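Hey, I'm writing a tutorial for new members on how sequence and structure tokens pair up, and I'd like a real worked example in the thread rather than a made-up one. If someone can provide the structure for the chain below, I'll link this post from the tutorial.
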Amino acid sequence: MDDLGARINLKLIEELRQYGEFNVQNCFSCGHCTAVCNLVQPGESFPRRVIRYAQLGLRDQLAATKAVWSCYYCGDCTLSCPRQATPGQLMEAARRYFIVHWDITTLSRRFYTSPRFMWVSTTVMAVILGFLFLATGGDVVSKRLALFEFMSYDFLHYLGIAVIALVALLMMINAGNMAFHVMRVLPKTPATGPILWIRDALLACKDILDDMTIQSRFSKCRGNESEASLPWYLSRRVIHLCIMWGFLGLLGATTFDFIFKEPGSYVPLYYPGRLLGTVAGIPVLYGTSVSLWLRKNHRGGASFERTMLSDWFFLWLLWVTTITGYITEVAVYLPRGSILGYGIFLIHVILAIELILILPFTKFSHVIYRPVALYLHALHLRRRARGYEARVPLAVGRPSDIPSSA
């Protein structure tokens, strides 16, 4: 990435330190971290460039650096650094910092820096939701588990739409805020017609499709001995894929039921929406359980050895939401309803709504920021390559000659 001018923030290191522990003051820019990183591509120079931007207080340049979002935090750079400058921890802190930085509500800052705010806000939110659900429903049928007599379907339906719309709008604004500032810092690309813009935009989607779907680059991260000693089914890549695809499956099952299923109607276990939700919950439960176990035992790589409370909170919230969903599903097929079944269903719905509500303010938001960041860089690289091809004949130019944005 070309530096075309910068605004210096002399307090950047102190601001970043609120979101993680690192020691980049020891770095003397030897480049060893870049040499050992398996994700570095031709033309890139991270993690060294990330460290340099942080040291110099170049927040805008740091924000527009691809490495902040493409790093999987295996810890190789930190383990091999001759000065113990902890570049991996810096990039982890930078991701949290920019989640806060792009958030127009400033609630992310409170979730990351104030455990009291996180616990109080989510508890108050749960109490309010529970009161509203019971006030609009509350009928308990003992002959069967009549969920939507206990809870008003209309209220849940419109509340869910409102919550999803609010969160989607907020994430669009935050992601747009991010895109505006990143593209402002990246070098200008040649002007072209709309057809070429659309072509480059579609090809940029193709460029990141593999990374977003199967995350093959994740497997290149060796990690430390603690991670290398674990079997493949306990690897960070498998855990991440399980949580990601399982969550998308649960989202698909919920959408299918919303469109095709009559509210409160009985359906067999093999009904498409019910079957998809049942199957999709398994990888989510597995991924969150293994992740919590590895974090508790400080195994499985640098990202599991140091964990912030916000990371624990998100994983536990997702785990409890999934397990209460399974218990509710079992209770639906029992011959009689019970207070316990209704109570667990209430907990499940409250936690599911809270999980959506906190999406823009916690680590969960990386599901939006990371694809957007990688897409912007893929698009920018293609636009720069087009300008390069215009200056150098294709027969002469080589792919390795094309400038790359770090």
